[in-house]
Amino acid sequence: MKNKIKDVEYSSKLFINSQITFTNNDKEEEYDINEYLSKYFCAGNKILSSQFLKYFMNEHYDVAIPETYILSVMDKNIVMMELNNKDNIEIFKDDDEITYKKI
Asked: Model's pTM, two decimal places?
């Protein structure tokens, strides 16, 4: 198992800012999630789906998120995008660089 973990391609700087915003009990809540999110930036991972974010927010912030939310992300090239509960990100290695695509 250790050999498999050792060979994982990883980037800690794929996104430089990630923020989730949602309404809970008529109150808008906003969380900067980049601090904990970076450890999931491994080639082969599919992240930021609705299911992933429900797990992630509960695990790291002890917060249940509603079905409707907006996730604002800025990547290392200063490209901004907004994701919702129908989107997710696939992380992969392209040549010698760890990158992503929205799926």
From this structure: 0.86
